[in-house]
Amino acid sequence: MKANRSIACLLLAALPTLASAHVAEKVETLHDQALAEFPGHRGLMLTVSFKPGQVSAPHVHPGSVFVYVLEGTVQTQLEGGPVETYTVGQSWYEPANVPHLLARNPDPMKPAKLLVWELLKEGDPILKPLERGAH
């Protein structure tokens, strides 16, 4: 009986993390600008906020992406690369059309927030969900 109670307590404690792992991260567009110097392209600046323990669905960005960690810790993995961990003040680059297999906030207690800048062709979405088996 004690074992069942312990397991139930563990599951209840993990529910917020498990629930947030399947909810889309919050994306807020800060600036979306057509680029006169690069006809047919636009620059996009946004923030991406992850709740504690939240995991992003695998996806691909049709544009080149630059990311800077504003708050917390984020783990990320591009196809063919290792899982990388970034903390406040660190940044990285994601080439266009490379599958982004993992993006998560590994901290079960603290949120994470990213500043993202993406160079896109006009009409392209910020990201496209990755189809199962596509990578």
Automatic annotation (TrEMBL):
Keyword Signal: yes
Pfam families reported in the protein's UniProt record: Cupin_2
Record-annotated Cupin type-2 domain positions: 48-117
Coiled-coil parts of chain: none
Keyword terms, alphabetized: Signal
Signal peptide start and end residues: 1-21
Protein name listed in UniProt: Cupin domain-containing protein
Lineage: Bacteria, Pseudomonadati, Pseudomonadota, Gammaproteobacteria, Pseudomonadales
